[in-house]
Amino acid sequence: MEEQPNDNRPSVPTWVWIITIFAVIVGLQLLFSGRLSGPEEISQQQFFSQVLNGQVDVIELSGDRLEAYRVDAAGEPETVGITTKDSQSSLEDVLAFNGLNNAQLEELGVEVQVRNLSLRNNIVSILFTIGPVLLLIWIFSRGFRQMQGGGGNNIFGFGRSRAKNLSDADRPTVTFDDVAGVDEAKLELAEVVQFLREPEKFVQVGARIPKGVLMVGPPGTGKTLLARAVAGEAGVPFFHISGSEFVEMFVGVGASRVRDLFEKAKQSAPSIVFVDEIDAVGRQRGAGLGGGHDEREQTLNQILVEMDGFDNDTNVIVMAATNRADILDPALLRPGRFDRKVFVDLPDVRGREKILEVHARGKPISKDVELKEFAKLTAGFSGADLENLLNEAAIFAARRDQRTIGNLEFQDAFDRIALGPEKKSHVMTQEDKETVAYHEAGHAVVSFHLANTDPIQKITIVPRGRAGGYVLPLREERMVYTREKFEDQIAMAMGGRAAEEVFFGQITTGAASDLQQSTRWARAMVMNYGMSSSLGLPTYGDQSSNPFVGRDYGFGMGRDYSEEAAKAIDDEVRLILDHNYKRAKQIIEDNREKMVGLANALMEVETMDRSTFEKLMNEAFAAQSDDAEVDSEELTDALVEEVMPSSD
After folding, report:
1. 94 Cβ contact partners less than 8 Å away, ≥ 6 residues apart
2. What is the pLDDT of residue 439?
3. How far is the C-alpha of 481 from the C-alpha of 461, rounded, in Å?
4. Which of 150, 188, 478, 506 is the most buried (most CB within 10 A)?
5. Are the C-beta atoms of residues 237 and 139 closer than 8 Å to each other?
6. How does pLDDT run across 298-343, given as a tens digit for each residue?
7. Do 441 and 593 contact (CB within 8 A), yes or no?
8. Taking 50 as the threshold, does the pLDDT of residue 547 lie above it?
9. Which uninterrupted H or E stretch holds 134?
10. Each residue of 4-53: pLDDT tens digit?
11. CB within 8 A of 492, min separation 6: which ones?
12. Quick check: 536 pLDDT over 70?
């Protein structure tokens, strides 16, 4: 059977052909002109000086080129000089100009030979003349063919859309089953897919297909993943592009790309267009201090027209994603353009558990790992954070040559993400270690004795990131927070500094982040939530008029209160902080023995879990209720015996 030629051979790029042809033309021109071989060209004065000195036997004239030869003993000619004459002058004129004539040449024994150019040489000369011109014509003709053929990868395709059309072969395999923790968003988008699959079902009852779906949410919550799931579920063409790809330095290019994109989508209708990070082009027009960006505004205007302009009878759905919906232009958000706004928020505890289960597929998770417990621990984590948590846990397992991912790997991965890597090379002095132990013990003891704080999950004095140690609470997710909750949180944060003052009589820099967090909470209570008895219900400070986030230049740059109110705010914030610091200090003074026992145990074992900590607190309470003296040394020994087996 005859073998078929291979059509899958890689094609040679155009630029390789251009360089090769140009090199061949130049090489041939140099070859035929004699510049690649023989002596270099000299002046006429030098040339005829050699003739007068008797160094030349033969002068050959070929066109305007003069070449001098000397015949050796074997009768072989050897070139000794090359020069050129003016095309308007004859050989006699050139000889006369240089002081020679035919008679003198005969006396010198110089033979003059005239060689007529052949037809072949004339053709080659013509090709050398018009060859580069033909090459340039070929390059431009190829470029114009590319321009007519479309595509955004050539120099003529500025105004063409760079959107990727995901065909059946390229369509993502992600479906709604692979997306967890955002059930409401999945329901909204599943309805959009159903619109495209069964439009008659909705048309019969007079429903109009939505023009646009805007997904809004913090980074990492799965907006792009949801778009990939829609692409995997929908059986229609799916065009994907980023908002930044519309904006170029040339005015009008972005609008041209928008027109080209929607033209392609209309030809493939019903179809979906997904614009990721639409805030790059959809900012409010006329905002800021220095005017708008003309190119971006023209692009936005074209998007507005294409989505709901004069000709709005299209079957194209536009999906977009952003985490900065507050800076988008109002005309973009009105019904008829983006009819639906899908809020993709941070997942709750059930959502986090489902997300962990999705990302745990294919990973060897140990049987004793309860993903539900880590879902409770990771309050505030996004879907991307949870995926990173599982990946970091798998990396820890691989480093330790384990075949399964256990609880220890999950806990280490959480600590690494939340606080940074463990500083194994950092050696703490005994004085620093004692200070950190009492500092963290102060946080834990104060939290245990307050009613509105979250239970302590872990206490450690192992340095991580910028922290010398930390207390990890198991945070409860709530929709609303009370004044008592804020005050107890502030008192807990002040517990570390209060412990340093009570036991060492001095303060350190270790409470810097605690003071910053406490100040933010107290200021929010006074300025945002109306939890101040002296300032009452008004809120203070309007951050919605910041021109640097795409809004108008408001009066006072967010300052909407008087100097007297500012002083009252400062006084009230300080009053809240001082009050709760005194509460924390009083709790520590009332529980000195428990503080000493807990701090000594931390210096021994360095890390303590929830069960061990609560056992210490409950045993101390039992001893106090029996009117017995609490022995801190006995508590320390009991804690060390409790923890050391698990830490070996």
Report:
1. 44, 66, 85, 86
2. 93
3. 30
4. 188
5. no
6. 888 888 888 876 565 567 888 889 888 888 888 888 888 888 888 8
7. no
8. no
9. helix 119-149
10. 444 444 555 666 666 777 677 666 666 555 555 556 677 878 888 888 87
11. 443, 446, 447, 450, 453, 584
12. yes
Cis peptide before 270 (omega within 30 of 0): yes
Angle, alpha carbons 492-494-499 (nearest 5°): 100
Instruction: Please report, as a single letter, which amino acid is at residue 66.
Output: L
**Helix 563-590 and helix 592-605, axial crossing angle in degrees, nearest 10:** 80
Instruction: State how beta strands 58-62 and 111-115 pair.
Output: parallel
Strands, E assignment, 177-322 = 212-216, 238-242, 271-276, 316-322
Tokens of 28: 């041939």
What does DSSP say about strands 316-322 and 212-216: parallel, antiparallel, or unpaired?
parallel
Please check whether residue 440 is in contact with residue 460, taking contact to mean a CB–CB distance below 8 angstroms: yes
Q: Are 610 and 458 in contact (CB under 8 A)?
A: yes
Amino acid 570: pLDDT: 92
Question: Distance between alpha carbon 25 and the CA centroid of its chain, in Å?
Answer: 47
Tens digits of residue pLDDT in 386-397: 999 999 999 999
Please work out, in degrees rounded to the nearest 5, the angle formed at the alpha carbon of residue 514 by the alpha carbons of 511 and 517. Answer: 150
Residue ranges of alpha helices (H) inside 223-290 are 223-233, 253-267
Percent over 90 (pLDDT), the chain: 14
Reduced to 3 states (helix: H, G, I; strand: E, B; else coil), residue 229 is helix
Which is the catalytic residue, given 233, 392, 440, 500?
440
Closest residue by Cα to residue 417 from 440, 448, 445, 393: 393
Dist CA 643 CA 648 (whole Å): 9
Residue type, 358: V
Q: For 116-127, how does the pLDDT look when each residue is reduced to its tens digit (9 = 90+)?
A: 655 555 566 666
The stretch 207-235 carries a mean pLDDT of 83
What is the per-residue pLDDT for 379? 82
CA angle 241, 358, 411 (to 5 degrees): 110
CA distance 373 to 368: 11
Question: Which of the four pLDDT bands, split at 50, 70 and 90, describes residue 549?
Answer: very low
User: How many C-beta atoms lie closer than 10 Å to residue 586's C-beta?
Assistant: 15
**Is 440 a residue of the active site?**
yes
Strand bridging mode 58-62 / 65-71:
antiparallel
Name the one residue in this structure whose structure tokens are 């009852």.
205
Q: What is the rounded distance in angstroms from the CA atom of residue 352 to the CA atom of residue 198?
A: 33
